[in-house]
């Protein structure tokens, strides 16, 4: 299902005991007041996968509940709790608070992708397929700009994709594509 789960870097997460969780970003703030969400916040750390989180929460649930094994409903109670955990995780994922951990882009670009409503995978793919050429004007050093572009996962090449030179009547025209 999911590999490692991690929080969207666009959100700051704050908790208040016993069961309040705030998701804060530049655009919105959301509050959940449920013990399950409070427990999820401390378990989702980018190291644990979906199944491990469910297992830990189920074990906590079993330790805190007095479940009688001879009761025919005890299995249903455990299954219902497991489904509630899965529903909460999927809701957090659907709303964009939770991401499958893929370190495709640095956190600053991941935040930008979130605000532009572009998936990190799509942005990474486009950055990998894009090549730009850097030419300096006057005494401005090229290497500083090349280093910045490389840190943003933009490929610098001798012949770029963004500018095409077209010779026309002894003038060079630059067309953006």
Automatic annotation (TrEMBL):
InterPro entries recorded: LynD/TruD_wHTH-like (IPR049274)
Organism placement in taxonomy: Bacteria, Bacillati, Cyanobacteriota, Cyanophyceae, Oscillatoriophycideae
Domain of life: Bacteria
Protein name listed in UniProt: LynD/TruD winged helix-turn-helix-like domain-containing protein
Pfam families to which the protein is assigned, alphabetical: WHD_DUF4423_like (PF21084)
Domain LynD/TruD winged helix-turn-helix-like: 8-58
Xref: Gene3D superfamilies: 3.90.930.60
């Amino acid at each position: 299902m999911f590999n490692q789960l991690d929080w969207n870097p666009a959100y700051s997460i704050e908790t208040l005991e016993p069961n309040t969780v705030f998701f804060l970003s530049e655009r919105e703030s959301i509050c959940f007041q449920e013990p399950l969400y409070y427990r999820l916040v401390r378990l989702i750390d980018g190291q644990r996968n979906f199944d491990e989180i469910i297992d830990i929460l189920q074990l906590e649930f079993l330790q805190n509940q007095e479940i009688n094994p001879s009761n025919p409903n005890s299995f249903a109670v455990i299954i219902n709790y497991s489904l509630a955990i899965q529903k909460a995780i999927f809701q957090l994922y659907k709303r964009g608070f939770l991401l499958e951990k893929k370190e495709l882009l640095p956190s600053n670009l991941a935040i930008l992708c979130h605000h532009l409503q572009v998936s990190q995978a799509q942005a990474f793919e486009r950055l990998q397929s894009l090549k730009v050429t850097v030419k300096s004007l006057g005494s401005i050093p090229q290497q500083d700009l090349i280093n910045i572009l490389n840190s943003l996962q933009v490929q610098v090449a001798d012949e770029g994709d963004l500018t095409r030179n077209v010779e026309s009547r002894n003038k060079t025209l630059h067309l953006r594509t």
